Amino acid sequence: MTRVIHTGDTHIGYRQYHRDERRADFLAAFERVIDDAIADGVDAVVHAGDLFHDRRPDLVDLLGTLDALRTLADAGIPFLAIVGNHEGTRSDQWLDLYERLGLATRLDASGTEVGEVCFYGQDHVPESRRDDLSYAFEPAESEYAVLVSHGLFEPFAHANWDTEELLSRSTVEFDALLLGDNHVPGRQRVGETWVTYPGSTERASASEEDDRGYNLVTFDDGSSGDESDDRATGEGVRIARRGIETRSFVFCDVDLGEGEGLDRVLEQVGQHDVEDAVVIVRVEGQGEPVTPAEVERYASERGALVARMYDRREDDSGTEIDVSFADPDEAVRERVREMGLSPVASAVDETVRASKLADSTVRDAVAETVRERLDDLDEFEGMDESTAEEGANAGTGADPVSGAEDDPASEASGSREATGTVDGGRADGRDGAPTTVGRSEAEAASDGGEEGESGETESSDGDDQRSMEEYL
Ligand SMILES: [Mn+2]
């Protein structure tokens, strides 16, 4: 028998709601999973991507992760992982660093055997490049074959990756797909193959209301019966879900009647224990205008870590809204992209409008932005209309412009998280990154081609999160 913990979408480094406490929570959730793995004596921890929230985690998170992985390695438990969309796939990964330190194994097409199971890896690949995938995995002698991957697979919500096609094209017959990307846990059979998501380990969005956890996957010994039968039916694979303790989220839905207002909302909030919790107040129905700030202050005074009020009465359409059109900030970014500004102009725009620099430092940052590029006059050339669109695409997933030293990436997920159950922003197929600076147009365009659909968002401001989550 081989038992593994299947986890993913840890998003270490996500400073959600601009709070250091939240950032610590994401690492703590990972540590909890690792502690459980050791207490349980599982044969491996399998991580299905998005270990980090973005491509440039801070040292404190890299070190915290290192410590956790070292503890796991000291217990003799291998850490098998792949790379998710949040971490990018352009070059070497932090995972490679941990692998070189002997603390992790980056799964690939050659397979890694643990007990009776051979684990294969398929990193996240943007939709536009999936046709090129060969799904050529090296066959192994192991009793079970498992693919670990990151993406939105059928038959789960928001899927854009054809699981049946993957299974039929793969050179190895998989007993299970252990997946990441969809933050909602789930378990299904596709033909003879188990397909499962463990869900995220902390709430990366207020839409993730259910308790967080991970999968415990058991592969039974085939020795008791006919091995080929086990494989044919998938019966030898058992998937159980186990919860973990996370930061308390209080969801307070208030349906206001005619003539009701702030008092009613506060009364409802007051009925919850909000101490150290993230408090999400959602107002629906009729009634008087309610100022979110007053509700949020009330909750904070009662010890809430974070409080957010979303007034759903402003959405009177009664139908689900495509958030990409509901976001005025995104509309502005879209328009700016269409203008085909030069890289320098775009950088200035980013510095002034979108970055989180303090007002007092914007002037210096703009001067610095321009000064740095004086040697390269191409940087001052605007794009003509035919390339503007290309440039706009290149903005998706491009590195943030310099001058915006306060990297907005860690707060960038507002728009994508508004899609609720997934974190890729692919539901609306666009994101808020405005500009590409300091790279040639060719590079930029190729980045766009590679990552334009990966849902990477690096520049939308944290404020988006509020405006977007109103529509969750
Ligand atoms: Mn994720």
Describe the protein's architecture and organization.
- This protein is an alpha/beta fold.
- It folds into 3 domains: 2-243, Purple Acid Phosphatase, chain A, domain 2 (4-Layer Sandwich); 249-304; 323-469, no CATH class.
- 32% of the residues lie in helices and 17% in strands.
- The chain is built from 15 helices and 15 strands.
- It has helices at 20-40, 59-74, 94-100, 163-169, 227-233, 262-270, 292-301, 323-326, 328-338, 343-354, 359-372, 385-395, 414-417, 441-451, 463-469, and strands spanning 2-7, 44-47, 79-81, 105-106, 112-114, 117-122, 144-150, 176-180, 186-190, 193-197, 213-219, 237-243, 249-256, 278-285, 306-311.
- A 6-stranded mixed beta sheet has the order 4-3-2-1-11-12. Strands 5-6-7-8-10-9 form a 6-stranded mixed beta sheet, covered by helices on one side.
- Strand 9 (186-190) and strand 10 (193-197) form a beta hairpin.
- The longest helix has 21 residues, at 20-40.
- The radius of gyration is 23 Å and the shape is globular.
- The protein starts with a strand and ends with a helix.
- Residues 317-326 and 384-472 have low confidence and may be disordered.
- Manganese (II) ion binds at residues 9, 11, 50, 84, 86, 181, 423.
Please give the alpha-carbon distance between the first and last residues.
Answer: 42 Å
Percent helix: 25-40%
Count up the domains: 3
- SSE pattern: EHEHEHEEEEHEEEEHEEHEHEHHHHHHHH
Query: What is the CATH homologous superfamily assignment of the largest domain?
Result: Metallo-dependent phosphatases
**Helix-and-strand structural type:** alpha/beta
Low-confidence parts, pLDDT < 50 over ≥5 residues? 317-326, 384-472
**How much is the average pLDDT?**
78
Strand content: 15-25%
Classify the fold: give the CATH topology of the largest domain. Answer: Purple Acid Phosphatase, chain A, domain 2
Q: What ligand species are in this complex?
A: manganese (II) ion
Shape: globular
At the first level of CATH, the class of the largest domain is Alpha Beta
Please name the CATH architecture of the largest domain. Answer: 4-Layer Sandwich
Rg on CA atoms, Å: 23 Å
Helix segment count? 15
Count the strands? 15
Spatial order of the strands in the main sheet? Answer: 4-3-2-1-11-12
